[in-house]
Design goal:
The chain is an alpha/beta fold and 409 residues long. It contains 20 helices and 13 strands.
Length: 409
Amino acid sequence: MHPAALIDAAGELLRAVLRLEQPADTVVSTYFRAHRQLGSRERAALAETTYAVLRRRLLWQHLAQSGRGPMDRRLVLLGWAGEPRVRDAAADAAEREWLAAANHIDVASLPAKLRHNLPDWIAEPLQRRLGDDFAALADSLLQSAPLDLRVNVLQTKREAVLAELEAQGIAAQPTPYSPWGIRLVGKPALNQWPLFKSGAIEVQDEGSQLLALLLDAKRGEMVTDFCAGAGGKTLALGAAMRSTGRLYAFDVSGHRLEALRPRLARSGLSNVYPVQIAHERDERVKRLAGKMDRVLVDAPCSGLGTLRRNPDMKWRQSPAAVSELVTLQRNILASAARMVKSGGRLVYATCSLLEAENEAVADAFEAPGFQRLDAATLVDPALVENGNLRLWPHRHQTDGFFAAVWTKA
């Protein structure tokens, strides 16, 4: 595609994403399906430019004020993540002069909000919690996340997958905390890999893997993944159970559970039972009261722990939305807890950075017979704060996760 046309296409895509009506990845995928003439490098340039602008939206909008022409074009030129020669060929002389001047601005001299690129309602509680460490977190959230894999231990071992990747010339290393994880260097296309097609590996952030590790489901147990979604943690739990016992994958979204089915088929698991429920008080939940050995509640949340992957979340979420989520989280946790039998384990988790969705919900939970467990007895103590699992992108190179653990007497 001609450079000018490619920059125009990037502007068109960015306009659609900045409406913030749908998740950015949904908008990008829809755009690419409608523009199949785009090559793989062109798609990569458009997608990465879009995400670059979302990550540094406040900074780029500030710098764009001194330029001319449509705002989406100025933002694309500032955040262009494709080959520089394409941007240079598409820009006119005045735009190239403006870009040179913008690139010479010392970002460190700008107000903090333009450096961390977070709305105040997100930045302020994180600054209070982290203090001087906030800047490191903010910087990490402006980077893209690595690509982590989880090895399906029902089929193979991590060492065997690492050896096969090395033989293929693919740079990879074991994750430091999850015994099932592999971190790739770069982001190769996995869909056609024999390892992926056979179900030997799945894409899953190391932090998500650690939630399954924290639940520690055993062979032959009765286990529920209460908010299963597309089933990443369900598959990890099923493999840890060696495809024995019964593993219920509950979710209110039939669409998300449908996305689990092809992954389940690849995995070789036969102990997983996907169940769509109407709400947390569904009769199918009540019928399992007191019968579960382990229950994982990976609750619906703001998703702010995934900002490296989903930078649009900081612009699409709001304090009001988080307040509604907190109410839902408390209700789900209370309902899920009723399923746990004596001697069983309950884990409440989110992929949020905010105390309101994490410690505050866990500390407010009260149910007869439940006692808090120190997560440091279950995972590496370096991952634990005040007895809870607390993963930070800048410290642990994972998505931001929280988890609290209880046992029932």
